[in-house]
Amino acid sequence: MKNLNYILIFLISYSAFSQQKVFKGDPDSAFEVARNLAFNDARKQAQDTLLLILTKYPDYHDIRDFLGSTYSWDGEYKKAREAFEYVLKKDSNRLGTWEAAIKNELYSEVPFSALKMANEALTYFPNNPDLLYLKASAQEGTNEQNEALQTIEALLKTNPNHEKAQSFKTSLVDKLSLNTIGLRSSVEIYSEVFDPMQYYLFKYSRQTKYGSIHGKVNFNRRFASNGVQFEVDLYPKITKGLYAYLNVGVSGSSLFPDIRYGFELYKSLPKSFEASLGLRALKYSQTTTIYTGSVGWYTGNDYWSFRTYITPGDSGASMSGTLNYRKYRINSDNYFSIDAGMGFSPEIYRFEFEGNENAIINLKSQKLNLGYFFTSKNNKNAWGIRSGIVHQEVSFNPGSYFWIFDVGLSWNMKFK
């Protein structure tokens, strides 16, 4: 009710002003009315009032400055630019006007103009932290991330507690860290029959403007044997909202397929959905082809996805599916995950396939996994812990089951 009374008073005052062609009255009081109108969803009335005041007081810079800000809020960047330019030509020693003018250029997505303006403003206010922050923002907009990082580091030398700059530096370091090395290890413990199975992975990846490339070395110890597999994954960008997954792997060990390869297309869809379709092929004594597809949905900090594998066989197609949920925190490397699934996929090298492909791909299986992934404060290091339980049909005794308990640890480090 109180806000409503204020608005009524402002509208009555505005009505009185709007009947004037040349302003008559107290400019300070009228300015206050206009400000309250602008902050109470009556922006057009506020702008009309401000323009009326300027008919008599064209160099009342605070008024023209505020008028420019209201234009910028409304996306009328050209009008805002004209207002700020007028003020700065009259008085270049207005820090607030410089900041508003630079932000207007950033909002209108002309970062080169914002950078030029920031450099000019810094000649009047050398080393001003807020201007340096805006300069770094403009440099990032012109794809000068290294220069933006240097600007932010200069800011933090004299203002180490500048929270926005600290956050911006973390973001820039993360973007400039195009290389990643990582290790992952896990162990599976069986309730009967098999000894524990050990899995290790070392990887190196690099981000490029065409997509990312990942080189991986897998080492397994299973069935009292050791085996190594070498893999390469590619994620090429095709066009906006469309990218692909390509994979090839080779091994001379019976624990892995001699050759594996895969292909998948991912497409962004409306309403924050994503879908994919592809295949995997594993060559042992014969080649097993697996068709796969997924649907994902981002909603706020939550991500849901469902993936299925379909493996044709002599006795019919085998199917498996997994539902995954992730709860993200500050970024994509910090999240909690849970997934549940049914059915067996031969992509998981849990058994020796040689000569048993048709029997193995039809095994019944249920699983539940939990994971927690987090990073260091600067996002340089990322860790993860994952554990799960599987209820698995025995390959050589259909209808009988055992339990598999697994736990895994991972570590990744980004660097330039």
UniProtKB/TrEMBL annotation:
Specify the YaiO beta-barrel domain's residue ranges: 179-347
Q: Which domain of life is it from?
A: Bacteria
Q: Cross-referenced Gene3D superfamilies, in alphabetical order?
A: Tetratricopeptide repeat domain
Please name the InterPro entries in this protein's record.
Beta-barrel_YaiO, TPR-like_helical_dom_sf, TPR_rpt
Annotated source species: Hwangdonia seohaensis
Write down what this protein is called: YaiO family outer membrane beta-barrel protein
Spans through the membrane = none
